[in-house]
Amino acid sequence: EIVLTQSPGTLSLSPGERATLSCRASQSVSSSFLVWYQQKPGQAPRLLIFGASNRATGIPDRFSGGGSGTDFTLTISRLEPEDFAVYYCQQYGSSYTFGQGTRLEIK
Amino acid sequence: QVQLAESGGGVVQPGRSLRLSCAASGFTFSNYGMHWVRQAPGKGLEWVAVIWYDGTNKYYADSVKGRFTISRDNSKNTLYLQLNSLRAEDTGVYCCAREETMLRGGYYYYGMDVWGQGTTVTVSS
To answer: Under a CB-based contact definition with an 8 Å cutoff, are residues A90 and A99 in contact?
Structure first.
């Protein structure tokens, strides 16, 4: 089973700052099969990024994804108040697994 | 509008069974693979199971293999999850999600693009 480890566990930043979230896989994952989701309290997850770097429909361009192999990142260029949430990476390459999540909180 | 609505959750004793349902509307259900994902209280997302659009293939997380069964009835636009031999660690919110196929630059990609709000399962004596 591929284990995804996200870091940091919690990221404290202010609106307007840049956020960089990491997702590390225990073995290589094809970029095609790496996805990012956003989840706000009491809400269902929302698809943000698929194929490691492609924004889903309706996702603002301040969100970007990158990486390959075992190291992937989600970057939010300038944080808006509505971006503070929990972010999960997920892989489809071997079965389906989620990372444990990164909580992005207001500093 | 595109919607998924889960039902069937409840409080159940360890070792007992439960069947969850996920009613789909607003899209052609039979064209999509479907997943179940759960979230224990205060914890992260855990993938549970997937079923192909036509029901021919099904895959499960190791934690539920042999105890849970995913199925679908395309004539009723409904996805199911049969939960047997329930354990305390199965407690959580169970969500169904649609698997979308996205074509970009000549390549196909996948992601869960529509989610239900979930139904709560509590396993307790």
So the answer is: yes
pLDDT band for position A34 (cuts 50, 70, 90): very high
In tens, the pLDDT along B18-73 reads 999 999 999 999 999 999 999 999 999 999 999 999 999 999 999 999 999 999 99
Give the list of residues 6+ apart from residue A26 with CB closer than 8 angstroms, or none: A2, A3, A4, A5, A70
Cα of B120 to nearest chain A Cα, Å: 13
Quote the CA–CA distance of B45 and B39 in Å, as a whole number: 5
DSSP label at residue B125: -
User: Average pLDDT of B101-114?
Assistant: 90
Quick one: pLDDT band at residue A31, thresholds 50, 70, 90?
Answer: confident
> Tokens at residue B69, please?
């069964």
Alpha helix segments (H runs only) across chain B: none
Question: Which one of B45, B47, B103 makes the best mutation probe of the A interface by having the most chain A beta carbons within 10 Å?
Answer: B45
**Average pLDDT of chain A to the nearest whole number:** 96
Contact present, B90 and B124 (Cβ < 8 Å): no
Residues on chain B touching A86 (C-beta within 8 angstroms): 44
CA dihedral B68, B69, B74, B79 (to 10 degrees): 0
A41 token code pair: 């309290």
CA-nearest residue to B108 within chain A is A32
